[in-house]
Amino acid sequence: MTDVLPSWREGRTREAILEFVEAVSDGADAIPPVERVAVFDNDGTLWTEKPMPTQLHYVVDQWAAAAKADPALAEQQPYKAVVERDLAWLGAALDKHYTGDDSDLKVMIGALLGVTAQQSVEDYHAAVAEFYRTAQHQTLQRPYSGAVYQPMVELLRHLDAHDFACYIVSGGDRDFMRPITADYYGIPPERVVGTAIGMEYDEATNEVRYGTSLRFFDDGPEKPVRIWTRVGRRPILAAGNSNGDVQMLRYVQGHPRSLSLLVHHDDDTDRGDAPYDKGAEQALAAADERGFVRVSVKDDWSTVFVT
User: C-alpha dihedral over 52, 187, 275, 277, to 10 degrees?
Assistant: First the structure.
């Protein structure tokens, strides 16, 4: 077993990654380190997003508590789904989003905003950090730190060793990810780009607090916009797994030298990452046409999760 990407099996995918990183890092044709920017989706790319994204697990707990305190909420979605344990409704809302139907997602976002409204950013950070300390992944039955993909962590470390600046660019809430990205991925909070709730400064308490509206939803065509806004450069490497990542994977291809990786959840070998294509149909269909390099969980990863 090699010390470089040890959880990646020998094959075209691993070879493509190593050849690209070496080509842009070494020799007369190397790209200057300041231009070596890589962007990674989070849910489904750096860690598992099934049976539901981690943030949804957190919010479901908050919605359940809210419905218990106010039973009238149980008559409306998404609280109704939580009280009736109809988690399929929640998953279907996300799947509908990836097919262009945001009707149920808007309902979920409205309820999500109620979770953090008027909460200080520090209090939310502490609440999320406590969730990560105590919550268990619903099917793996282990802490969420054990739901991280080992091969992707190895890729991040390999890029670090070649002077890449790695960013997370996710449809998930930026501040929900920040408490763990340094520990789980080695990515500091200032390199986390995600969906953002509007904020306001409270003069009386000297606090920054969350408002009641969504500032932007960092998915699909919004991802390249947020990358440029935060980074000010076009990345040369991107990794994603869903329809919402297609524009980001294409955006890096505007650079003369680039690599776009599409993680395909196709592992039917019972290693804990159940196979699925739902929500990734457009990305998979575009892979060959756009030149995305498919990363097969089944064939390219000898180990799936961090232990």
Answer: 80
pLDDT of residue 284: 98
Backbone φ and ψ for 33, nearest 5 degrees, come out as -50, -35
Specify whether the CB–CB gap between 227 and 193 falls below 8 A: yes
Residue 85: the pLDDT is 79
Walk across the sheet containing 192-202 and list its strands.
207-216, 192-202, 165-173, 37-40, 237-240, 259-264, 293-296
Q: What angle do CA 39, 196, 96 make, to 5 degrees?
A: 80
- The whole-number pLDDT of residue 2 equals 60
- What does DSSP say about strands 165-173 and 37-40: parallel, antiparallel, or unpaired? parallel
Task: Tell how far CA 26 is from the center of its chain.
Answer: 30
- From CA 88, how far away is CA 279, in angstroms rounded? 14
DSSP SS3 for 149: strand
Angstrom distance (rounded) from CA 301 to CA 306: 12
**Mean pLDDT split into 10-residue runs, the chain, 307 residues:** 87 98 94 98 97 90 88 87 80 78 80 89 97 95 97 98 98 96 98 97 98 94 98 98 97 97 97 95 96 98 96
pLDDT for 1 equals 44
Q: Say which residues have a Cβ less than 8 Å from residue 244's Cβ, sequence separation at least 6.
A: 41, 97, 98, 171, 219, 220, 223
Q: How far apart are CA 194 and CA 171, in angstroms?
A: 6
Among 117, 52, 104, which residue's Cα sits nearest to residue 78? 104
How many other CB atoms are there within 10 angstroms of residue 9's CB atom?
15
Alpha helices by DSSP H, listed for the chain, are 12-25, 54-69, 79-83, 87-98, 103-116, 121-134, 150-161, 174-185, 222-231, 246-252, 281-290, 297-300
